[in-house]
């Protein structure tokens, strides 16, 4: 790469000098979103580092990232062949695998339309506008009951432990047509161990780039492999049950609809069959995985911010009391009347940037960006954290201030300002669960804010330091919650 001839008129990428064998691993350190942001100040919005022997291009700055992912979308839409990605969904993941462009596009379209149709299905009663709303409201109410019970029994609760089950149940409902109890050991052992998944799959894991590290024993890697194996086993078993009970005239959930797609294709003799049944039905594995870890991490952070900023927690409660009242569960249609809540969510995404990098990208052909030459098959990191903390875009980026998104005396959200926050990626690989995720974070949070008041444990200071990974988590901790309204209304 470094010796590659640079085509005339283009420049060689700037970047720090790499050490032999390890490259720039030491400069990247344990928080690459901070070190690579610092490097962007020195080398600009496009520069190159070397991890092990492999060059990686790092993009920051919203204009540069937009240029690459949107305007030159095709050229930057690939995924690199990374060691750890081969173990996710048996190497057949829609999000992480090196599927050829045509295969990936077909799978992405299928996944998108399955998600859209099963979230917008009518609810079982007219009070809900759609199935997604019904699932979230029911799981939200159940979560409040669960936290109330745990508070009574233990005097404190671990936010992630309970939120993750509620969120997993929403995606389980859509993908598999079932839900699990808050103490279901099988689900708990899967969803509560997702930390190692994120740690290994995060951008810049040296084991992805330095082959000798792949053969050294690593406890985190061992857990990562075991989580992937157990995850696949869990989904495979449910998929098997769906095949056994599949009925063309009664498509129950996303798994059925993917099986149905495979069956239809077999009848259609003219169809160009390029994608295997396994890769089609396997989409459900990606949807389930992406659908619980991201949202529960975001919601768990939101509880941490409520506790860290009690005056904002109080304002959110007042807004809820004034605009929705306390007699009914909030709904999706209440969103336009809750500008502070929407602003809080924008600021949560921006300030925490809990997905600091997108999933790594890869160039699909020789290309250039801002006059710099980038060869085909180059791994590209997109630093979302940098965009969300760029002083060129944000006033006092390190302070947590939802009011930055409010206008007209706090009665309206500035959507244009909200769109500057980058957490779902951009362009061809942009997250396909974005609408569901935004609705889910909003509605769970609305239900939580209406019914609970959160506090720290006396003598236990709040630790807001993120632990680096694909999704950054806060350290597991214990908090307290008191009911805002009488239990009678709940039970
Ligand atoms: C990809 C963020 C929720 C499904 C992504 C990417 C990001 C992201 C940053 C990578 C974009 C890129 O590589 O450029 C988030 C956040 C979420 C969330 C912050 C919640 C707050 C969801 C949900 C689903 C989902 C609920 C599905 C139910 C996917 C899939 C991809 C993806 C399938 C891979 C797309 C591809 O490679 O073409 N998401 N996501 N995500 N997300 Fe999400």
Automatic annotation (TrEMBL):
Main location: cytoplasm
GO molecular function: heme binding; iron ion binding; mRNA binding; steroid 17-alpha-monooxygenase activity
GO cellular component: endoplasmic reticulum membrane; P-body
Gene Ontology terms describing biological process: deadenylation-independent decapping of nuclear-transcribed mRNA; hormone biosynthetic process; progesterone metabolic process
Binding-site residues, heme: 431
Keyword Endoplasmic reticulum: yes
Keyword Acetylation: no
Top-rank taxon: Eukaryota
UniProt keyword terms in alphabetical order: Cytoplasm, Endoplasmic reticulum, Heme, Iron, Membrane, Metal-binding, Microsome, Monooxygenase, Oxidoreductase, RNA-binding, Transmembrane, Transmembrane helix
Compartments it resides in: Cytoplasm, P-body; Endoplasmic reticulum membrane; Microsome membrane
Family: Belongs to the cytochrome P450 family. Belongs to the EDC3 family.
Protein name in the entry: Cytochrome P450 1A1
Organism: Perca fluviatilis (European perch)
Span of the entire protein shown here: 79 to 569 of 1074
